[in-house]
Write a structure and sequence with these properties.
This protein is of the alpha/beta class. 43% of the residues lie in helices and 14% in strands. The C terminus is likely disordered. Belongs to the proteasome subunit S5A family.
């Protein structure tokens, strides 16, 4: 049994209203979340799962790492369907949440549900994947709804982040089988103690008004995570200001990025690679800051 901290990143964009998956993309995804949560929680007594969304006015943490499924279901019922998904920012916030987990013995994993077109370019996703791999974060991606359009980008992302077969891309076309059943039989949950676990209730709804907390985290529920996320954002904003002049020079002298992800991982970083990673971190945090500003003014 694997001891893990897992963040589930959900797609709550307008595309989730489509009814090509039974009964809708959002409801199918919500039922799958119940299955994944139960399987992960049962696989090890000290494993924990958190849930967040990546659309609307910005990424929001619905539930910090927990073993309480009821807490997750309640949070999802209060989730709004709106806007477009921001995959990179969502994964970035999930990584920050895992970084500040209380039990450092837990392996880090992110499971992304994506059911809408991905606006991020492939090069940016590959850079993000390399950083996640460097930080020992495994990533599983469940692609549904817009799977053909997103296949190339997601395949490159997963092949890059993969280390020892710890990451998977599961593409699920619309069909008669439930999304949750396919995930239960997939490599994502292979080896988990999820045998016989069915949906334990209906998924989240589209009603409710969400919350007004920064990053969607209630400081009274998890003050350490809320503070850590805020400090990480402030630190990256400072690094962004410091690297504004240096980043263009580094980018100008760097070779063109390759989108080939089937080869072996890089052994030695190129000169200036650390500066490029730092610049990318800063840009992601800047995008996240903008989304939070929009949330505050909305």
């Amino acid at each position: 049994m694997v001891l893990e901290a897992t963040m589930l990143v959900l797609d709550n964009s307008e595309w989730m209203r489509n009814g090509d998956y039974t009964p809708s993309r959002w409801e199918a995804q919500s039922d799958a979340v119940n299955i994944v949560f139960e399987a992960k929680s049962q696989s090890h007594p000290d494993s924990a799962v958190g849930v967040m969304t990546m659309a609307g006015k910005g990424p929001q943490v619905l539930s910090t790492l927990t073993k309480d499924l009821g807490k997750v279901v309640a949070a999802m019922h209060a989730t709004q369907i709106s806007g477009a998904a921001d995959l990179v920012s969502g994964i970035n916030v999930a990584q920050l949440a895992l970084k500040h987990r209380q039990d450092k013995n837990q392996r880090q994993r992110i499971i992304v549900f994506n059911g809408s077109p991905i606006s991020d370019n492939e090069e940016g996703l590959v850079r993000l994947a390399k950083r996640l791999k460097k930080n020992n974060v495994a990533v599983d991606v469940v692609s549904f709804g817009e799977d053909e359009e997103n296949d190339s980008k997601l395949r490159s992302f997963v092949e890059t982040v993969n280390s020892g077969e710890n990451s998977h891309l599961l593409t699920i076309p619309a069909g008669p089988r439930l999304l949750s059943d396919i995930i239960l039989d997939s490599p994502i949950l292979m080896g988990e103690a999820g045998d016989g676990a069915g949906p334990s209730g209906s998924g989240g709804g589209e009603g409710g008004g969400g919350n007004s907390f920064e990053f969607g985290v209630d400081p009274s529920m998890d003050p350490e995570l809320a503070m850590a996320l805020r400090m990480s954002l402030e630190e990256e904003q400072a690094r962004q200001r410091a690297s504004e002049d240096a980043a263009p020079a580094v980018a100008a002298g760097a070779p063109a990025a390759t989108t080939t992800s089937s080869g072996p991982a890089q052994v030695e970083p190129a000169p200036g690679a650390a500066a490029v990673d730092e610049s990318e971190d800063a840009m992601l945090q800047q995008a996240l800051a903008l989304s939070q500003q929009q949330k505050g003014s909305g």
